[in-house]
Amino acid sequence: MARRFDGCSVVAVMAAAGLPGGCALTEVTVAESEDVVIVESQLTVNLEDDGMTELFVYAYLHRTLSASRASEVEGATIRVMGASGGVAHLAPADSGGSCLTYDSNEPNEAVGSCYVAGISPSPFAPREIVELEVVLADGRTLTGASRIPDAFSFVGLTQENGQCRLEPDTNYRFRWTEAAGTWSYLSDAWIQGLPEALAGQDVSAPDSLYLAGFAIGEKDTDVLFPGEYGLFDFGDEADADLLRILDDGLPGGTRAQVAFAATDRNWVNWARGGNFNPSGIIRIPSVFGDGTGFFGTATQRALNVIAQSDDGGITPLCGPAV
Length: 322
What we know:
By secondary structure, the protein is mainly beta. Helix content is 7%, strand content 41%. The strands form three sheets. Strands 4, 5, 6, 7, 8, 9, 10, 11, 13, 14, 16, 17 and 18 form a 13-stranded mixed beta sheet that branches. It has a three-stranded antiparallel beta sheet with strand order 1-2-3, with no helix packed on it. A two-stranded antiparallel sheet has the order 12-15.
C-alpha cells in the first residue's frame, strides 16, 4: 500500500515471511513524475529544379503526463530565426495532417498541439544556422539550434516537370551528390495503385503504401528503388508476399511519390523506427530549457514515378534499370 509522507510517495513492502527474525517492513521512497513538455520539430527546405526553394517547418508539442491531464500544449509562441536575419513564425494547425510521428510515420492523433509554417521562397538557405524558440503560454521557454544540410542534386536521372517513368517489375538505383553536413539520407515513398495492378493475385495490398529507404553518412549517396525500401514497422499495412513483389520493382500501372531528404545530426539522434535506431536505445535531445525534444533540419527533393512500359514518349525513362 502507499501513503503520503513529507511530500513524497512512500511504499511499504512486506519482506518474505520465511526470513530469519520474522517479517521486516521496508520503506522505499518513489519520486513523483515530473510533467515535462516535449517539442518535436523539423524544418525542411524543399529544393526545386528551377532553383527555387520552399520552406516547411512544424513543431509538435506534447507532455509526458498526457494521461493524467490535458495533453494539448496550446497558446505557445513559436518562431525560427536564421543567421541571415530571416524569421518564420509558426501558427496552430490540425495535428491530424501536419505533424508526423517518426515512430510510425503516421499523423499524430489528438494527443498534442501542432504548429506549422510554409513559406515560398524559403527565408533560410542550405548550410545556414537556424534557431528554434518556443515560448509556452505560462512563459516557460525551450530552444534549439541546427545547421541546415547542404543542397544536393540527382545524378544520371532523366525527368520532366518532376516526373519520370520506370519499366514495370524492375529496380532503379537513385544517385545524388553529397550534401555537406548530412548525417543520414532518408527517402520516403508513397505507392498507389497496387490493388488494381495486382488484381487476380492472392496478395493483400493497401490503397496507399508507405515505404522508406535510408543511407547512413554523408558519402552514402545511392539507394535501390524499390528493392532497398521497406516498412519501418511491419504490421497490417502489407504482407510478406507484397514486399517480395516490390523487391523486383513496381508492378505495371502503379505510381509513387518519392522524396529524398538530407537530414542533420539532430534528426538522426532523435529518430527511431523499426530497426532504424542510429542513436541507440536512448534518443539524444537537441531542445533544451523548460522541457526537452529535438529540432532537426533537412534539404529535400521530390519526384513522381510511374511504372509503365511505354506511354508514347510523353514521360521520360528515369534511367536504365538495374
